[in-house]
Amino acid sequence: MNNRTLKTAIYVIRLLQLGYLLMVILMLYLLLATYFNWTYPEMVFNHLPHWFTIDFGENEIFQSSFNQVYYAVQGTVLATLILLSLEALIQIIYSIRSLTAFKSDSIIKFRRIGVYTFLCFLITLVKPQYVEQVFSLKISFEFQYLLFACVALMLAEVFKEGNNLWEENQLTI
Questions:
Q1: What is the pTM of this model?
Q2: Measured between alpha carbons, how far is residue 10 from residues 6, 104, 109 in Å?
Q3: CA neighbor of 103 nearest in space, from 58, 165, 14, 17
Q4: How far apart are CA 64 and CA 163, in angstroms?
Q5: Would you kindly state where each structural domain of the chain is located, as residue ranges?
Q6: Three-state DSSP state, 41
Q7: Strand 54-55 to strand 43-44: parallel, antiparallel, or no bridges (unpaired)?
Q8: Between the CA atoms of 160, 141, 55 and 80, what dihedral angle is there, to the nearest 10 degrees?
Q9: Displacement of CA 13 from its chain's centroid (Å)
Q10: Consecutive 10-residue runs of the chain (173 residues): their mean pLDDT?
């Protein structure tokens, strides 16, 4: 199957993967900077337009080494889970292109996407902070992860039903 929309989707997802990979590198830099006492530049990418800057200003993330390490690890894990989800989505698109979308492999990949995004929801649920010798704990509901996990798990069930119908059709021929 030669579908221009599917090709475009793959290119867009690959660009997203590149962005999340750069985010992982940034988070690892922040994590290592804590241990090696590296300084943070005030602005990164100064030669780019003003709307594309990363500001390491006064932020609660940088007010203690606990916050730096926690948020760097959290960001790295989140970006890695999203990268894994995007890779599974690309594999599903390839199965659609090859007309094998209703095989059990696609069902497994949709379930993985659901589990990965549900883990993203759980990881972002609690936000501990340590500022000026005071430890605080915030609860934050990132519903976009939960919604995407539900959609992915529902799609897994839809594809499972499609797989059952496909197998029944194969038996009647």
A1: 0.77
A2: 6, 21, 16
A3: 165
A4: 52
A5: 4-172
A6: coil
A7: antiparallel
A8: -30
A9: 11
A10: 81 91 83 73 53 56 75 88 93 87 90 96 87 80 92 94 85 68
